[in-house]
Amino acid sequence: MEHNIYIVIALILLFGLILGKMLRRVGLTQVLAYLIAGIIIGPILKFHLPNQFNAFTTGITLSFVGYKVGLSFSMSFLKRMGKKVIIILITEVIITSLVVWLFIYLLTKNLVLSIVLASLAPATAPAGTVAVLRDLRARGTLTDVSIAIVGLDDAAAIIIYAVGIMWAKAILGGHTSIASSFIHPLWEIFGAVAVGGIIGFILSYSAKKVYLTQDHTFVITVATIMLTWGLAKFIGVSAILSCMVLGTTIINLNRSIAILSDKLLEGIMTPIFILFFAIIGMEIDFSHLLTILSIVVMYCVARSIGKMIGCGLGGVFAKSETKIKKYLGIALLNQAGVAVGLAFFAAQELSGSGLSNTIITLMATTTALFQILSPLGTQYAVKKAREDNQYGRA
Fold first, then answer.
1. Alpha-carbon gap, residue 120 to 140, rounded angstroms
2. Any idea where the domains of the chain sit in the sequence?
3. What phi, psi does 125 have (nearest 5°)?
C-alpha cells in the first residue's frame, strides 16, 4: 500500500522525538525509542516507505557515521590506544567466532551453517553504537575504545568471512575460486582504503589553498562523504570502510577542517538517526522468528557470550583498565548491517546447499533483535563505567 512519504516521515520524526523524551525520563536511550517508533508506524500501523528512500537513508546514515568514526583515529589517539585496540580487536573477533561456531554446531549439527554464522558474528554496527554514545554524551576510555573497535570491525569481519566461506565451500565439495574467496575480500578492504585515502588527501590539501566559510565546509563535507560512498559502491569495495578512511585521512592532514566538519554534521545527526532506526523497526517481520526461533536464540546468546569473553580476555592481554575488561563486550553487542550484506553474499556462494534462505533470514532477524536490545547494553556499560554525561570523563 502506497502512503504519502512526507506524512510518514513527519510521523517518524515526531514519534521518535516524543518517545525519545519519554524514555530519557526513565533513564533509557533514545535510540530504543526510534526503533519502537518504527515498529509502531510499520508492523502495527502498516505504513511503508519506498525501498529507494530506505536505501538512501541507510547509505547517508552509515556514510556519515563511518566518516565521524574515522575522525576518531588521529595519530595521537592511535599512538595512545592503537596497540591495545588491535589486541582487543583480534581477541574479540576470534573468540566470538569460536563461541558462535560451537553453540550453533551443538544445536544444529550442521557444520557448514555453524561456520558461516561464526564468520558473520564478529561485526559490530557503528551506527547503533555511536548513536547511543552520542545520546549519552559519553566520554572516557571505554567510549574511545568502543569507537575504535567498531571502526575496525568491518575490515575484521570481511577477513573472517573470507576464511569461513572458503572452509564452508570446501566442506560442501564446491570448487572454491581464489577470485571470489580471497581476492574479492582483499579488494574490498584495500580498495576501500585507496578510495577514502585518495579523496581525503585531495580534500585536505585543496582546503588549505582556499578560504572556506562554514556553509562551504558543510556542503563540501557532505558532498565528499557521498562521493566516497557512491564511488566505493560503484567499484565494489566496502563503502563504510572507505568513509572511515576518509575521516582518518582528513583528521591527520587537515585537523581544522576535520573538527569543523564534525561539528557541522553533529547538527543534523538526530533526525538522520531517527529515520535510520525507525526504518529498521518498520522492516522487522516477526513471523520469521517462528521458523528459526531456536537458532535465533542460540546465535544471540552465543554471540553475546563471545563478545563479552573476547573483549574481557583482550582487555587482559592488552593490560587495559578494569572497566574495559568488564564492560566493553556489553557495549559492543550491536550487530552490523555489514553482516546482513555478507549473508547475502554467502547465500549466493552457497546457492546449491539449501542454506541460502536460512542464512539470510537468520541474519536479518538477529540484526533487528540486536538493534532493539543492544542499545540497553551499551547504555548499561557506559553508565557502569561512569562515562555518561552525569559524571563526565572517567
1. 29
2. 5-384
3. -75, 115
97 pLDDT more than 50: yes
Count of other CB atoms within 10 angstroms of residue 145 = 26
Give bridge partners of residue 124 from the DSSP assignment.
335
Q: Say how many residues make up the chain.
A: 394
Contacts of residue 10, Cβ cutoff 8 Å, sequence gap at least 6: none
CA 109/CA 86 separation, integer angstroms: 33
How big is the chain by its Cα radius of gyration, in Å? 20
Say if residues 117 and 364 touch (Cβ distance below 8 Å).
no
What is 5-384's CATH number, 3.40.120.10, 3.30.413.10, 3.20.20.20, 1.20.1530.20? Answer: 1.20.1530.20
Q: Are 335 and 365 in contact (CB under 8 A)?
A: no
Of residues 3 and 189, more confidence is placed in: 189
Side-chain half-sphere exposure of 209, counting CA atoms within 13 A: 5
Quick: pLDDT tens for 346-365: 776 777 677 877 887 788 77
For residues 313 and 96, what is the distance between their CA atoms, to the nearest angstrom? Answer: 11
Residue located via cell numbers 550491536? 334
| pLDDT value of residue 253 | 94
Dihedrals phi, psi of 263, to nearest 5 degrees = -65, -40
- Degrees, nearest 5: CA angle 305-362-161: 70
Cα 125 from Cα 334, distance rounded (Å) = 5
CB-based contact 327:146 (threshold 8 Å)? no
Distance CA 104, CA 241 (A): 29
Identify whether the C-beta of residue 60 lies closer than 8 Å to the C-beta of residue 272.
Answer: yes
φ and ψ at residue 335, rounded to 5 degrees: -90, 135
- Of the CA atoms within 13 Å of residue 276, those in its CB half-sphere come to 25
| Cα–Cα dist 231/246, whole Å | 12
